[in-house]
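Two proteins were folded this term; both appear here.
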Amino acid sequence: MNAIVLGKTQHLAMRQLKASILCARLWSRYILDNEELVLDERARAVLRINERIFRRCHLEKPFRDVVHDYDVDPFDAVLVDDQRLPAAFRDRRYPQMRVLLEQRLNRDRRNRARAASRVSSGS
């Protein structure tokens, strides 16, 4: 999250951020494709990665700030469109994650609007 933490927002930094999101999703797909482990183990590994990405996007402000400030969504790193992942994840958990994250982003938007109105009114 160099874009937020380090204030790196130049074109190259944004391209790198977008590429890192794509790489994370491709890494999950690579894990699923790697037949050295049985499919259940590979799917569990990807589900753990997906949960980790969700937690960071949901709980860590810099991950949400990049959505608000630069229209780049780190949650896009979550792999969902693969039939090898359990249907329960694709049909239940992923939509649940989306709803929870959207609620958090909406709360951020309201807080940002309130803060901006306090600044503009001089309070």
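Next, the second protein.
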Amino acid sequence: MPQWILATAGLVLASLAMAAEYSVDPRLHIVTEHNDNLRMTERNQLSAHGTSAEAGVLLRRRSEVDGQELDLRLRSTQYNRSDFDSDDQFARGALHRNWRRGGALLRFNVDRDSTRDSEIIDTGDILHKSYRRERYQIEPSAHYILSLRQRIDASLSAEAVRYGHERYMDYDYGTGSLTWTWSSSERLNWFVQGSYTHYKSKQSRDLGFSVLNTPPLLPLLPLLPFEEFSQSYSSRSRTAGLQLGGEYRWSEQLSLTAMAGQSRTRNRYRIKDPMEVCSFFEQQGLPELYQGLIGLCGMEDSRGNTRLWNVTLDWTGQRHSFQGGFLSQTQPSADGYLLESRRATLGWRYELTERARLIADGLWGRNKAQGSSPLQLGAHRSERDYVTARVRYQHKLTEHWFVEADYRYRYMDRRAVRGTAESSALMLGIRYTPQGWRWSR
């Protein structure tokens, strides 16, 4: 575990010992699930059922000028297909401090889950069993009020993601942003935001290639001094972006936030080629088409532009609430390069009674490799559309006991695979939130 995570967790725990108001809130959640396509594959779907038990505790400390919290969760999931069992751990922490004209916030996240859950948004590739994924993130941020109408916000984020299988490439990802806000009226705010991101994938495993029995290469076979070879690669991407936008509140119930802009990315690839296959083709003066058909020789440094959008519509009524959004940006990936990602979300919540609640939400997404070309490692494998739709019913039995029923539908269409993948899952759960402890000192 990175040392900065341990240091941040230590600060949170040390803060909890200082004078203020304290609270401890435990919880327990048990869910049973049936899924007719657990691996989200186009063919040979795997049907499975299982049970998940999660225990957690939330520790909080509050004072007039600062506060801290630490959220810990342990989850164990067992399926009738044991290859997809997992024991997961999660930690969330935050420290904040306010002063007269500003404030600062420090967050950290530690996730030790499995590819069964993480790859739905990222690669879409769940493989034949669950593998460990570890994610460590730290996010410092601060704001300063320049005047009654102006404010500056700054934030940084550092993230390290590690996998337990060679199919997925480990990576580091860092972001930074600076936002200026101007309030032209009580209802209208304007934003200008500059951002920078840095993505670095670790070296891939050695990829083996064979050049025999490949029809486009048959005329070249007499020239080739090799039949089989291996290569590997890593990548690095730097992105700078600028967005303009605003927030408008029609009323206390309805608001719209919209930002638009563009980013510029430079992608660099490093190929490890111990047999110097690519150099051989360059010396022979072969067309790029043939080079692209041989291993990684077609991977080229590139530049690309991405349109940035961040739109959110919120409406809250007496018993209803609705939220819709659209997001277009770059995102890191375990495929070994940066992705262009577009997502649209919808969420609806309805309070049926004081004890019953209905929740529906949906997600549509589209991914593709940033700055990709047909010559770059068949980067079309990252190009896919995916949809998730979910309906949940929650009922409060007593002050501390809740039951819920949940239906989830997923759809995925990958360019590199013929056909589409669909899955339906039904989940029944019970939640227990005992009375916590409160004290001050």
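The chain has a mean pLDDT of 87. The chain is about 5% helix and 60% strand. These notes refer to the second protein only.
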